[in-house]
Amino acid sequence: TQLLEQSPQFLSIQEGENLTVYCNSSSVFSSLQWYRQEPGEGPVLLVTVVTGGEVKKLKRLTFQFGDARKDSSLHITAAQPGDTGLYLCAGGGTGANNLFFGTGTRLTVIP
Amino acid sequence: GAVVSQHPSRVICKSGTSVKIECRSLDFQATTMFWYRQFPKQSLMLMATSNEGSKATYEQGVEKDKFLINHASLTLSTLTVTSAHPEDSSFYICSAVAGGSTGELFFGEGSRLTVL
User: Fold this and answer.
1) Do A104 and B49 touch (CB under 8 A)?
2) Would you state the torsion angle of the CA atoms of residues B29, B72, B43, A26, taken in this order, to the nearest 10 degrees?
3) Which residue from B minimizes the CA distance to A40?
4) What is the C-alpha separation between B1 and A44, in angstroms, rounded?
5) d(CA B77, CA B49)
6) pLDDT at residue A14 above 80?
7) pLDDT band (50, 70, 90) for residue A95
8) Which of B43, B105, B112 sits opposite A102 (nearest CB)?
9) Tens digit of pLDDT for each residue in A36-66?
């Protein structure tokens, strides 16, 4: 099992603040995905990064894949209550399309 | 986008009974589906890989005789929790690959199992 550690595990911030979530592993991944999950629902894909050093932006969300493809970060600018949820990173191995999920970061944005 | 549907979304059963959860790809064929388990406030743990027409591949520590997986068609995989116990209570989620082995992964809505 390839372990993906996320930090922080829990984060509660005020609306309008910025935040960064980290996803770290000792394993190399061919790709890394970020998901957001609402309570009682399945995860929804936010982004996939495949190239070391890659940066992708999705509105107020910025995703970065580490140069060595072992880690990733998610930065949210001016957080809004609608950003509240469980954020999961997930790594895919070479030749495999099953994912190993990170430990998760539960974000609460307070209005 | 592709849709994966699970049924039932919630199920409550008595200890010792068996429960079947269905995972369907509604608008695409999926030769491979995955089953995950998620305990409250925790991440998803891969249980097994379901392959159409062949036996499922189980992750280490997952009992194949307790969690029976059948992938009889290209649009349906089922997970049967046999002789359920309260510790089997969890949120079970499936995912399916669209577009071949390198296709995008889509997740179902999840099924919450409560064993009394």
Assistant:
1) no
2) -80
3) B110
4) 12
5) 10
6) yes
7) very low
8) B43
9) 999 889 999 999 999 999 999 999 999 999 9
Distance, in Å, from the CA atom of B58 to the CA atom of B65, rounded to the nearest integer, reads 10
User: What confidence tier does B99 reach under pLDDT thresholds 50, 70, 90?
Assistant: low
- Per the DSSP assignment, residues forming a β-bridge with B6 are B23
pLDDT at A35 over 50: yes
| DSSP 8-state code for residue A69 | S
Spatial CB neighbours of B100, under 8 Å, sequence gap ≥ 6: B31
Contacts of A44 in chain B (CB under 8 A): 107
Q: Tell me whether residues A97 and B110 touch, CB distance under 8 A.
A: no
User: How sure is the predictor about B1, in pLDDT bands with cuts at 50, 70 and 90?
Assistant: low
Q: Residues of A near B (CB-CB distance < 8 A)?
A: 1, 33, 35, 40-45, 88, 97-104, 106
pLDDT at A55: 97
CA distance A38 to B115: 23
Closest Cα to residue A100, out of A11, A27, A10, A22?
A: A27
Q: Which residues pair with residue B111 across a beta bridge?
A: B92
Show residues of chain B in contact with A1, CB under 8 Å.
59-60
Ranges of beta strands (E only) in B39-75 are: 44-51, 57-58, 67-73
Alpha helices in B27-113 (DSSP H): none
